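Why do we bother with holo predictions? Because pocket geometry can differ from the apo form. Keep that in mind while you read this record for NAP.
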Amino acid sequence: MSTNSCEKSVGTEGRPLRVAVIGSGPAGVYAADILTKSEEVRNGGLHVSIDLFDRYPAPYGLIRYGVAPDHPRIKGIVNALHKVLDRGDIRFFGNVDFGTDLSLADLQAHYDAVIFATGAIKDADLNIPGVELEGSFGGADFVSWYDGHPDVPREWPLTAKHVAVIGNGNVALDVARMLSKHAEDLLVTEIPDNVHRGLQASPVTDVHIFGRRGPAQVKFTPLELRELSHSKDVDIVLYPEDFEFDAASDEAIRTNNQIKTMVGTLTNWLVDQDDDVSAVTSTASRRLHLHFLHSPVEIIGTDGKVSGIRFERTELDGTGDARGTGEIIEYPVQAVYRSVGYLGSALADVEFDHVRGVVENDGGRVLDADGAPVPGVYTTGWIKRGPVGLIGHTKGDALETVTHLLRDLAQLPAAVHAEPEAVVDLLDERGVQYTSWDGWLELDAHEKALGAAASLDGGVQRERVKVVPRVDMVTVSRGAAVEV
Ligand code: NAP
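The structure, written out:
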């Protein structure tokens, strides 16, 4: 482990500044890209050499394993990330787990600086009785399943006809849309075959989304909300008694264009909703119900399985917050999906705020238990600031972190094994089956070829068919010359 201060020549006349970025989602790729394009590098004064690590065999993090397959616009961000990684100046090592395959001490020995960009993939807790029942699921876990995450079971129990989704954020919308959409309408996307088969067999008829506050307090974004109405043979059902606006709602509608647009969309749907189109008379084979002012109280079980959900009706308190009214409402459902936000997972050897789910940091400088910066250790993205904001917001984050790293250049502890091959030797010695950028190009081409082959069979143009099992991903990737 290195404790020496960085020699003056590191990154300048001598060897390049060696930086490890952990996590190859947008946060990690943006940080690496911003560093390589910094003024210090562009003016020729600083040379950097960056290695990007990911615990998954494929790059792109949340874009591959968090964005719903029917969101091609967001999946398109992959093209920008691909361009960065395809330039050849950043090495990619997939299938390398920080904390198992490499420790912080290993990274400090091989790099002058480390940036953690590990994001968040777990569900935030919802502390109500019944969450442990069979049929109560974390929304983020379902996302991992439909996105073909290598570490979740292949099968998902889609046996419920009536489903509740708790939360009024974009993940709740994704989960509800994926649950209610007809499987054949997803074939044009990159959904894995097991997911298509699972959704195809789903008997679902009614998906209910519940928000604990009002229509002006939703955390959706306008495009994502409007998209709900694009699913074929799925009626949206709204309830007039849920349309309550307090002074804070009026202010939000007046001052926030997104809120104004979304309240407009919801109100138009309600107005257009013919009295005939109700939960009872809808002619579509599936319905998506949007409920507001419902705070979850308890998931009800029969024989250990979800059989219903109980809410307390709320009212707005004037500030945009909600308070309970004491009125209890029950809905018979056989599955509950909790989409109340993500929570980052702790990292080995790094101080962690378990309540906020973030690495302890000050503007991206990772802090020790005494609140002092750990020299050469940084963080960016959701694991730095929490799981809020759209992907683009992560760029500002990365800029702040990289700016701090560059300001600290003279104080960075120099790596003792800075030769680029040293870390490769270490991984080889430990038998880590790492994947490379060339390996990803191989897997990418393989998935697209599977898509083309499936298109011939089924007649539907399939963009790609994702390879799900980790071992298959690694095998295909390492079939290519693993050159780094
Ligand atoms: P989010 O936007 O923070 O929404 C969480 C929702 O859960 C809120 O409606 C919140 O209500 C509700 N909630 C929290 N605790 C609750 C409780 N105890 N009982 C009932 N409801 C509770 O989180 P997210 O949906 O996980 O999204 C995370 C980020 O990813 C967001 O920035 C989102 O926009 C982004 N994202 C974007 C897309 C896209 O397609 N563009 C897709 C997925 C995610 P309160 O507001 O009352 O707290």
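The pocket of NAP is lined by residues 71, 74, 126, 166-172, 174, 211-213, 217, 219, 221, 224, 296, 339-342, 387-390 (CB under 6 Å).
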